[in-house]
Amino acid sequence: MDHAWGATLAAMKELEFPVLSQAKDSLQGQLTAHNASGKKVTIKVKKVSDQATEIHIRVGTFGDEALSHVILGKIQKQI
After folding, report:
1. Residues 6+ apart with CB under 8 A from 77
2. How does DSSP classify residue 4?
């Protein structure tokens, strides 16, 4: 969980998406940011087990699958 959360923060920094809010405990975390075009990016990280973490990414109101894949790729690269 901590490793995935750190990778998520690092990906936001690499993409230059300013983080507006973040909240995390030992089981889950949520981060909100904006990209350059003003779309809201919400990332939820949830601990599934000691070895697995679930990551949900939502871009904008209706989603943007292409940008979500870019963000996930940056997170995976950090892990």
Report:
1. 11
2. H
pTM greater than the 0.85 cutoff = yes
pLDDT in tens, 10-56: 999 999 999 999 999 999 999 999 999 999 999 999 999 999 999 99
**Domains in the chain with CATH codes:** 2-78 (3.30.310.80)
Q: Which string of b and e fits 18-57 if b means at least 16 CB within 10 Å?
A: eeeeeeeeeeebebebebeeeeebebebebeeeeebebeb
CA geometry: angle 21, 23, 24, nearest 5 deg: 150
